[in-house]
Predict the 3D structure of the following.
Amino acid sequence: MATVLTTPGVAGLSETVAVLREWQDDGAPWQLHPGDLGWFWRFGAEATAAAIRTWSRDGRTLAVGLLDGPTLLRLTIAPDAMREEALARQLVADVTEPRRGVLPAGKVAVEAPTGTLFHDLLSQHGWDDAEPWTPLRRDLTEPVPDPGVRMEVAGPECAPVWAAVLRASFDGSTFTDERWHAMAAGAPYADARCLVAYDDQDVAVAVVTVWSAGPGRPGLLEPMGVHREHRGRGHGRAITLAAAAALRELGASSAIVYTPSSNVGAVTTYRSAGFRRLPEIRDRYRDQ
């Protein structure tokens, strides 16, 4: 039976999100999370659908990829197909040949779970290691300590505040109120929460979005930001603790996040909130 590469379209988005939820597991290698699709949804349902690629066989989805930009494919594979040779070789061919409609010619990168045959084969086909990223995880079996600051769950009326703090957290951010509403309209947001942290002057100082993959599965923090004018005061740790607590309330087994290893401050913040550093991961990239 042939494996079919498709772009599922808006009508297929909910099914793709459901598949990704099923694949999440604390024992699995780092992989694409339904929250990654949820965060991308800020660009709208049509843009999200256009950025997704799926590989299916006999009606069953075996791999899902998200074009997180025109030259970066973030891809994961069904747990029981991670070492399947036929699938791995087709994935390599599809991401390597621009005419397949996955990645263009020139410098491109692929994120895939470490330990999959696909990840291994990329290196054999001339793909090199990119800069390292650090995944972190916090177990949610036990209650999470109180963050010590006022937190608010951001609904539609709070979108301007949430968006403003996010813009002030990342240089060059173009996030808008409209993008918040687009994100909140997406299928993954049914199991998500946006939080805002306030200081003792009742000023909004940090924001985060958490994405559940369902009870008993790891939940994702994406994004988390502290207003540039309010850093160095423990707000990053506070909002991270609140995020973990929110995921625990949603039934998540753990809270996960990742950041470039070069961002020492972010790694330190997450560790201060009880997150355990996991082995580094690296994208694969090709120069031409």
About this structure: The first helix runs from residue 13 to 23. The CA atoms of residues 164 and 176 lie 8 Å apart. The chain has a mean pLDDT of 97.
